[in-house]
Fold this protein.
Amino acid sequence: MNRLFYCLCLLLFGWGLASKESELLAQGRITSDYLIQSEDLLRVTVFQEPTLSLGQTEGLRVSAKGNIPFPLLNEIPVAGRTVQQVKEDIERRLKDGYIKNPQVTVQVLQYNEQYYTVMGEVKIAGIYPLPPEKRIDLVEAIAKANGFTPNAKENSIELWREGERKRYDYNELLKIKDEDQKIYIKAGDKIDIPDRFF
């Protein structure tokens, strides 16, 4: 009986460690410019304020409207914002009459996959997952679609974002060496490679 109890304890302890490890891996895979979205699972910690610390055990789910409930502050919009932006917003709100110098930590424990679309004159058109652990630029996004077809108009790549279209020349994109100057893909982007005969 004691041996069975001991094995059960070890199993539960191991499961707890694995759960914590997966949380840490999820947090470590997310880039600083990752935009939180609905259904993501967050943990918000306010230093030395346990009653204001949320999602400590199972996480706090972002609502369909993109908000999280927060004691004293009602609902806080988080969708479409980075972890740093949410942290600063909560600190600013808490400073406004509640806590003198709040220290807030925001973590993404679990995220929903985000996507972008590549269509037109590429070898494998389709919908591709946008990795949260690293940024990919327009050149990499085209490479993931196995590059251009022979009919591609490479000097007129169209990037559609939030209803706006911008055009880019592939050869000019290749010349950009400064990481901050590259055209990075965001969730929901549509990349269209036109046919050079039209």
